[in-house]
Amino acid sequence: IAAARARSRARNGGRLNRELSGRDVTDAAALGPDARRVLAELAEAGGWSARGIHRILRIARTIADLGDAPIVTAATVLAAAGLRDPGEREVAA
Q: Which of 2, 29, 45, 63 has a 20 to 30 Å separation from 56 between CA atoms?
């Protein structure tokens, strides 16, 4: 965990993944074409907002850091999405 935090801080100018803005986390994720496709499909199917997408990217980037991976892959996006709380989205009454 300490090594993953150090990788995050080194890449993000001293900030952890959780501290990144939406634009910054998109840049830090360095998504390949397959990861972009999977993320877009999941976001569309789940009706995710931009904020929800960025939340998944922060988690995916952290998972990648834990595995010492330089980029976020489609498998990493799927792993992050699997951690999403199904009750997280509130339905307007």
A: 2
